[in-house]
Write a structure and sequence with these properties.
Elements: H1 4-18, H2 23-46, H3 58-68, H4 71-80, H5 84-95, H6 102-122, E1 141-149, E2 152-159, E3 165-167, E4 186-189, E5 192-200, E6 205-211, H7 220-226, H8 228-236, E7 240-241
Parallel strand pairs: 1-6, 6-7
Antiparallel strand pairs: 1-2, 2-3, 4-5, 5-6
Helix pairs in contact: 1-2, 1-7, 2-6, 3-4, 4-6, 5-6
């Protein structure tokens, strides 16, 4: 059976061939997802519950980041992750949702995502449709997903750390709770007619939503990354992304 990791890797490879502007990003993501898949499979087999367990993968991870980048992460690793205590401190900070520099967040998230996904796959999630934070791990959403339901579509949010999905009202800002439709504009570009920029004029944040009723082949975390051109547009118009994706975009 094809795993969620295999679907992500295959989708990244497919989109890299057709989206020239995002090819390098998607190629890098494919390498990272292949590495993360190996961690996920290890941790799923051992039923590990301690996030510090992923520290054992740092040696392999640091070799990969030196080879593939990004440079800011490689430099951070050389300057700040010289011993086990520094590495565990970084993992704990990200697991506790503390603010980190871009390079530090990237290094920690690549390791902690597969751990969090393995943990979430075993845990009981109690959705809270009014909460803009993940009901399992407390992280913020990286994207939204629309699925057809009756004459409309149902929206879910996708956690940036453990990939848990939870239902969330369509007309509600996950950051500030704004619920007036006039304050929640939606923008769509022709190149990505199935990816929506869902913005909030009250707090000036945005979240990209992947409409699976328009493109059933999309893989939300990958298509969110591939549509990086929409990030540029949104930020040029004064919106800040609610939560960066794995590559910090």
């Amino acid at each position: 059976m094809t795993s969620v990791w295999d679907r992500r890797i295959a989708r990244a490879s497919e989109l890299a061939k057709s989206l020239v502007a995002a090819t390098d990003l998607l190629d890098l993501y494919g390498k990272l997802a292949t590495f993360q898949k190996s961690i996920f499979e290890d941790l799923r087999a051992t039923h590990e519950t301690d996030p510090m367990a992923v520290a054992q993968y740092f040696p392999r991870w640091l070799v990969l980041v030196e080879r593939c980048g990004p440079p800011v992460a490689a430099k951070y690793a050389r300057d700040h992750l010289r011993n086990e205590a520094e590495r565990e401190s970084l993992l704990l900070a990200h697991w506790s949702h503390l603010s980190l520099d871009d390079g530090a967040r990237f290094l920690a998230r690549v390791l902690l995502q597969p751990f969090a996904e393995a943990l979430a796959a075993r845990g009981n999630v109690t959705p809270n449709p009014a909460s803009g934070s993940c009901p399992f791990c407390g992280a913020r959403p990286v994207a939204a997903v629309l699925r057809g339901e009756g004459d409309g579509a149902k929206r879910s949010l996708v956690c940036s750390l453990c990939a848990t999905e939870w239902e969330f009202r369509r007309i509600l800002c996950p950051h500030c709770g704004e619920q007036h439709k006039d304050q929640l504009p939606v923008y769509v570009a022709g190149e990505f007619d199935y990816v929506r920029v869902e913005a909030c004029d009250a707090c000036r944040t945005y979240l990209k939503s992947i409409d699976l009723s328009r493109n059933g082949l999309a893989v939300p975390t990958v298509d969110e990354l591939a549509s990086v051109a929409l990030n540029v547009w949104a930020e040029e118009h004064g919106y800040a992304k609610l939560e960066p994706n794995l590559l910090g975009l």
